[in-house]
Structure formats: structure tokens, C-alpha cells
Amino acid sequence: MRTGTASTSARGSSSQAVPRSRRRRTRKRSLSNEPRFAPLPVITLGMSMGSTMAWWAAALEPRVAACVDLCCLAEFDALVATEADDLHGEYFFVPGLRREFSAAAINALIAPRPHLSCVGAADPLTPAAGVASIDHALRAAYAESGVPHAWQQRTGRDPR
What we know:
By secondary structure, this protein is α/β, with parallel strands linked by helices.
């Protein structure tokens, strides 16, 4: 796997993102050490780019109790097949990630913790095939974890 290469955005070099990420972790640790907040569960919630951050954080941090992602969870291969990958920012694709992982595999790391994913039925950023693929894989992952009810996916056309 290739390492050590990072892209540069209009906001500056990727090295500027490292301190920002450290600040987020420091704030989280500070809140969890604060007596008023320590007993509360940590839940990730995000929309669009924040949605991606929510499921990444929940997948990688076992202390996250639940995840809610809005408008941004679809399988990587479906995004590429429909050319919707160009509609997402560079944050969405980690170099070399698709060779090793699918979006479903990353999200399966959240199981057995509750996960609600909401996407728009006509949203070009979440092609129907990629949404269905995620749902199929995560239904299986959550069923295998013994908590099939803990995975929920909603689309804009879904009356629930």
C-alpha cells in the first residue's frame, strides 16, 4: 500500500488537517473527562461530508455508542460506476482504500452499535445501487452480530 502522499486542497496542505483532527480528539477527551458529560454516551451525527466523518469515527472508535449519517453513505464502487465519485470532495476517497476495503466493510465495524443511515432517493451522491449494496451488507453484518434491528436505512421515498 502506498503511504506518504497526500493531496493539497484550496484550503491549504493536508498537513493543516492533522492539527484540526488533534483538536477534535482533544475536545472529545476533555468533554468525556468533564463530570457533567462523562456518563453520557457519545453519538456521531453528520450530514454530507459530516456524514462520512460520522461513520468513519464510529467505525474506528469503539467508545462511540451510535451513529447517524445523513446524505452520504453509498458503496464506493457504485459511486465510481455512476461517476458520482467526482461529485464528492477529496475527503471521501482515501488513496488506496478501495483496494483493501469497501464502504460496507468499514461500516460493518460499527456493528453491533445502532446505526441509522438516511439518504435521498434521487440524490446523485448516493446512487441507488450503492445504497442497496450497503443495506444488503449491513443487514447481514447486524444479523450476524445478533442485533438486526440496530441497522436502519431510510431513503427519501421510504414512508417509515
